[in-house]
Amino acid sequence: MNFWQDNRFVVTGGAGFLGSFVVEALKARGAQDVFVPRRADYDLRQHDAVLALLGDARPDVIIHLAASVGGIGANREHPADFFYDNLMMGVQLMHEAWRADVRKFVTVGTVCSYPKFTPVPFKESDLWDGYPEETNAPYGLAKKMLLVQGEAYKQQYGFESLHLLPTNLYGPRDNFNPASSHVIPALIKKCIDAQDSGESELVVWGDGSPTREFLYAADAAEGILLATEKHDDPGPVNLGSGFEISIRELAEKVQALTGFEGRIVWDTTKPNGQPRRKLDTSKAEAAFGFRATVDFDEGLRQTIDWYLANRDSLVFSE
Description:
By secondary structure, the protein is of the alpha/beta class. It has a domain at 9-171 and 213-244 and 276-294: NAD(P)-binding Rossmann-like Domain (Rossmann fold, 3-Layer(aba) Sandwich), CATH 3.40.50.720. It contains ten helices and eleven strands. The strands form three sheets. A six-stranded parallel sheet has the order 2-1-3-4-5-9, sandwiched between helices. A three-stranded mixed sheet has the order 6-8-10. Helix 1 (17-28) packs across helix 7, helix 2 crosses helix 4 and helix 6 crosses helix 10. The radius of gyration is 19 Å and the shape is globular. The mean pLDDT is 95.
């Protein structure tokens, strides 16, 4: 049996940022039946929509990427939405996938599920050693419940599920909406806008001290598909690059690559978020051979180039 050609795939969130890379990688592997549900047609928060999706697509494998997600500002403004939407989408979909005899369910969770003060590098065994960073805890905990569900369904029903924990993602096609974007696209847009308008400075939240690990979206897609094909344990698995950088250093890199000649002002009245993030990725390499390959500076250049080429066609809504 050819795993890719002989299975039917559903990729929730497949029209989104990471999802677009996953769908491309599936097709490059020879997958011929890939169904991408649109929210307008299948609102996965609604039970009837979940049943309709499973009936229409009849998947063998579900890769669940769909999420309500945003940066620190969006998390502070919409904690209830992020909790409810992410929990309801995932819990109902996994339950009905089990009832429909789906062969494998792959949940793509979040690094936000880790405790606020997790020792660096984050190991999967650290996942339950404290409460997540407050600004994104509702989102992180909603996703974390899908790990509990997957492990429980494996124990009771023998249901095959995976739970992957990618670190912060970036790359072409990222979300550049200032109302909900994460740090890299937000910085890129701010620097380019400031340069275009001749601003002498731009303001960035926090004090620049927190660190983050970033994973190029195409690398993340490769890790997800390697796990989908080769891994069969419901426990958590980190997906990362092994590269850690402070927000201050990141801002300086983006400033240099975009050509912004003004100065960066740090608004220390705004939250920093989690102090440090860097994953231990040894489990993913041992379990299914994943190792990130895209150099951070090169990935950053490609992301900036994509934004410059596409910004005039981007439409942002609240």
